[in-house]
Design goal:
This protein is α+β, with helices and mostly antiparallel strands and about 170 residues long. It has two domains: about 120 residues, no CATH class; about 45 residues. The protein is about 40% helix and about 20% strand. Strands 1-3-2-4-5-6 form a six-stranded mixed β-sheet. A hairpin with a 5-residue loop joins strand 4 and strand 5. The longest helix is centred in the last third of the chain and has 23 residues.
Length: about 170
């Protein structure tokens, strides 16, 4: 889900929610981009499925704090939003689900074998979601797709796996 072949385009705001970041966070020289996944059917069909850049940060710690700041602006009854942090090379560094005042970071896979298992499980969940949608169970299909997306969020780029895991340990 997060490794899209489409370029990541900056935007002023996502889905009508103004960003909670100062304007200097858009500095393109900063290496870490905090993004919001666009999974709405209209975005997927229109080709705008590339993640929205909410802000750019000089360090991973600042990007993680930016994600928490973004989560503080999410309404308590709103669905969780999938946030991801990418590096300058558009490699996934860290991802998680943001909801009211918190971000549940997804722990990165530790090996290629674990990554293959995650891909297989996410694929199976999406197949189950398609069947649930065909049976007229849209809520179940949405929940299954969300679980698959959270699994995909663990597929951190191999260059960042150990560093991201350590960052999560330090943040805890």
């Amino acid at each position: 889900m997060f490794h899209l072949p489409l370029p990541i385009h900056p935007t002023a705001y996502a889905r009508g929610v103004p960003p909670h970041f100062p304007s200097d966070d858009a500095d393109p020289s900063h290496p870490f981009a905090l993004t919001l996944s666009r999974r709405a059917p209209a975005d997927l069909m229109s080709g705008r499925a590339a993640p929205l850049i909410l802000a750019r940060f000089a360090t991973l710690a600042e990007a993680m704090q930016g994600a928490i700041d973004h989560a503080e602006g999410i309404a308590p009854d709103a669905a969780p939003q999938l946030l991801a942090i990418f590096d300058r090379g558009e490699r996934l560094v860290l991802a998680g689900a943001a909801s009211d005042h918190a971000v549940a970071w997804c722990h990165p896979v530790t090996s290629a074998a674990e990554a293959r298992g995650v891909v297989t499980e996410a694929s199976q969940l999406r197949a189950q979601a398609d069947r649930a949608a065909g049976w007229g169970e849209p809520d179940q299909a949405r929940r299954l797709r969300h679980r698959a997306d959270l699994l995909d969020a663990r597929l951190v780029d191999p260059l960042w796996r150990a560093f991201a895991a350590r960052a999560l340990q330090v943040a805890a």
